[in-house]
Specification:
Layout lengths: L1 H22 L6 H32 L8 E4 H11 L1 H7 L2 E5 L5 E4 L1 H17 L6 E8 L3 E7 L34 H11 L3 E6 L5 E8 L5
Parallel strand pairs: 2-4
Antiparallel strand pairs: 1-3, 4-5, 5-7, 6-7
Length: 222
C-alpha cells in the first residue's frame, strides 16, 4: 500500500498545482508546467507497473496466466529484449552485448519470456554504475538452453540471496532506498519459468555484480 500511496501523492500534488495554475492562483512558466506533467506521467506509469505486477502474480499463483509454448529463435528474442531497453541503457551510459548462436531455438511463451528477460535487464541496469556493461550469454546442452544475464553492478549481500526470489522480498526495504518496487519482479520470473519447466538461480558477490542463470528446455513437449 505504501508503494501505491507514494506515486498517487505525486500525481494528486501535480494535479492540484495545475488546477491552481488554471485558477490563476499559481504562476508557472512553460518549463515548470512540463516538469509537473512529467512527474504525473512518470508516477502514473510506476503505478501501472505495480498494478500489472500484482495482477500477473495473482494469476501465476492461481495458474490462470495462459502460456503458449512454441519454438522460437532465441537470438531473435534476446535481441528484441535488448532493443526495447536501448534508451534505458543509453540514459544510464551502460553498454551491453549479446553472445548467442543465431540458430539456437528455445521452447517458450514469447511474451512471458520477454517479461522475464525484461525484469532481469531492468534490475541489471538499475543496480549498475555508469560505464559498466551488461552481458547476455546463451548456450545449449543436450537437453537445455542456458541464458545468463551478467552485470557489473552492486551485487547482492550474502544474507539476501536465499530470500531473493520470495514474493514481496526487497534487498533494501528501507524508505530511503533509491530503487522503488514491491519485490515481485524476481518472484514473477521464477513462477513464469516454472510454468515453462525452467529454473532460475543467482550468483553474486557484493560490490562485484551478479549473474542470473536461466535453464529452459529447448524442445517443446509433444
Amino acid at each position: 500500500s505504501h508503494e501505491l500511496k507514494t506515486p498517487m501523492a505525486s500525481i494528486l500534488g501535480s494535479l492540484k498545482m495545475l488546477k491552481d495554475l488554471k485558477n490563476g492562483t499559481l504562476d508557472l512558466n512553460a518549463e515548470e508546467q512540463d516538469e509537473i506533467l512529467r512527474i504525473a506521467i512518470d508516477n502514473g506509469e510506476r503505478m501501472n507497473r505495480i498494478i500489472g505486477d500484482l495482477l500477473n502474480f495473482n494469476k501465476l499463483e492461481r495458474k490462470k496466466l495462459p502460456m503458449i509454448l512454441e519454438t522460437h529463435n532465441l537470438n531473435e528474442l534476446l535481441n528484441n529484449s535488448l532493443k526495447s531497453f536501448s534508451d534505458f541503457f543509453n540514459q544510464r551510459k551502460i553498454s551491453y552485448s549479446l553472445d548467442a548462436d543465431s540458430k539456437l531455438t528455445i521452447c517458450t511463451d514469447k511474451d512471458r519470456f520477454h517479461q522475464v528477460i525484461g525484469n532481469l535487464l531492468d534490475n541489471a541496469i538499475k543496480y549498475s554504475d555508469k560505464g559498466t556493461e551488461v552481458k547476455l550469454i546463451a548456450k545449449e546442452s543436450s537437453s537445455n538452453i542456458m541464458i545468463q544475464i551478467i552485470d557489473q553492478g552492486q551485487g547482492i549481500p550474502e544474507g539476501s540471496k536465499k530470500n531473493l526470489f520470495q514474493s514481496f522480498y526487497q534487498v533494501d526495504a528501507t524508505d530511503s532506498r533509491s530503487h522503488t518496487g514491491i519485490g515481485l519482479g524476481l518472484s514473477i520470473c521464477r513462477l513464469i519459468l516454472g510454468e515453462m519447466s525452467g529454473t532460475i538461480e543467482v550468483q553474486s558477490e557484493e560490490g562485484k555484480g551478479s549473474t542470473f542463470t536461466i535453464l529452459l528446455p529447448k524442445v517443446c513437449p509433444v
